[in-house]
């Protein structure tokens, strides 16, 4: 299976899990590191694509790695920021609810 397909499947599963669990404040301990791993893999694919390009290989060799790495790096960078923000919002709602219930 192509590396881009694997990254797409794992990224889609990660996005679905974040979309469901982050507003509830659940799963932070596994989902944030999972997102960071996907981002690191994307940056590695981008670096590999640039290395293959600099070797002067034919375009069909480096294009897949470079495109997948560039797209994944930008998508996972922004999605990871959004996921962290959703967890912070859930934490603030939890704190606000505990303040209201304690008075």
Choose one word for the global shape. elongated
Instruction: Report how far the terminal alpha carbons are from each other.
Output: 57 Å
- Uncertain segments are none
Strand and helix order: HHH
Q: Would you tell me the structural class of the helices and strands? A: mainly alpha
Largest sheet properties: none
Radius of gyration over alpha carbons?
Answer: 18 Å
Mean pLDDT: 93
Number of alpha- plus pi-helical segments: 3
User: What percentage of the residues does DSSP assign to strands (E)?
Assistant: under 5%
State the helical fraction. over 70%
Number of strands: 0
Protein architecture, described:
- The protein is mainly alpha-helical and 103 residues long.
- It has a domain at 37-95.
- The protein is 87% helix and 0% strand.
- The chain has three helices and no strands.
- It is elongated, with a radius of gyration of 18 Å.
- The N and C termini lie far apart (57 Å).
Detail the topology: elements first, then pairings.
Elements: H1 3-21, H2 28-54, H3 59-102
Helix pairs in contact: 1-2, 1-3, 2-3
Provide a brief overview of the structure.
With 103 residues, this protein is an all-alpha fold.
Essential attributes:
103 residues, 3 helices
């Amino acid at each position: 299976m192509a590396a881009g397909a694997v990254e797409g499947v794992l990224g889609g599963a990660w996005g679905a899990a974040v979309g469901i669990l982050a507003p509830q404040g659940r799963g932070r301990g596994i989902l944030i590191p999972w997102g960071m791993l996907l981002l690191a893999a994307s940056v590695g694919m981008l670096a590999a694509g640039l290395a293959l390009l600099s070797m002067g290989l034919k375009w069909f060799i480096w294009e897949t790695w470079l495109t997948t790495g560039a797209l994944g790096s930008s998508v996972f960078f922004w999605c990871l920021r959004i996921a962290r923000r959703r967890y912070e919002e859930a934490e603030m709602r939890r704190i606000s609810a505990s303040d209201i219930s304690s008075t």
